[in-house]
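$ fold --in a.seq
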Amino acid sequence: MAGLHPSQLRRDDGRIELFHAFMGLFMELLPRMLGPYRDPLEPIWDQAAELYGSFAANRGLAAGEVIEEVQVLREAIMRAIYQDPPRGAMGQMGLREVLRLNRVCDRLVLHASVGHTDALFFALFQGSGVPESLSDDVRWEIRQQLESLRAEADAFQRVHAF
């Protein structure tokens, strides 16, 4: 993740910390999303992605910029995988696993875009038309939601012990 350079993080008012918290959560959930328990974990993945999209809107990003950031994450994942390919029961990572990984990354892009659009819609609906900036309260709320999603994923892992 050291090569990721998120848009609009030049000012550090907690943005970098939150960005890395999101990326850490996505990287933690990714292997679980590729395994046998992906269906029950999809709502957590989707909520995290939508929250990331909302975070991007609060940072003032355009819709294309949030998608670009997620695509950079996808590229980092692909580079890491092909640098040291995981070995399955049959040896190399198969086409099925690569396609599943792409579907999971596509889902991240989709739901980040939905979260961004929702943030813009609710800002317009509530009157200002501009999403709330990253105040201390907004950053605290995002952190709380991230911690809740991480706790939910960890609780699921403890119960299913994989």
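$ fold --in b.seq
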Amino acid sequence: MWRALILLASLQPPTGCPPPPPPYECQTLPAEIDFGEVRTFRLAEQAFHLDPRDLPELSIVDAPFAARIAQGEVGPFLHLQFAPRDARMHVAELRVRLSRACEEQTMRLIGLGSGAIETPSLDLDFGSTPQSEPVELLVPFTNTRRETTSVSGTAPNSIELLPTLFELQPGERREVRVRLSCMSPGPFLDRIDFRTLEPSQQFLDFTVRGECLP
């Protein structure tokens, strides 16, 4: 009987030892992360704590999003950032595999860049344009902030901006004339760029498309 008691005692864990770790389980990450509205050149961040036993692998995510694995006081975490340079909606996908035992997960990243200047569309379609005469489109800009903002524009040789440099008072709306002079017949695809100079930078990149008729 004494031998049975000694054997039973030897099978009990020593007093004061930490309990065994729980079995490893693959964590389910959110399918979508919405950073909401973030002003251009500001930074928004979100973090998700991971199991210390994770060995995560991340796909490369395009700017203005960024993703990395960082170490905190309570263990590793997935660190996500959104830093928009232009005022528009941004969408990207991040693929995450927490360990070799886990399936790859896809996280959809969403964020809206908000700037001082607003315009209805960043796509300018001139349609079918005669090569013999210039054609104009009017592009409206509105200053939504409480401070005066200066705006500068650049364009290729075939496009003229009137004006190229202007100032908007708080709440003011102004139209810029975009004049196209076709250089050669056929479809064309180009871009024009506007940016605010003060008090903080904001980029507005317009796509210009159409077809020049002979």
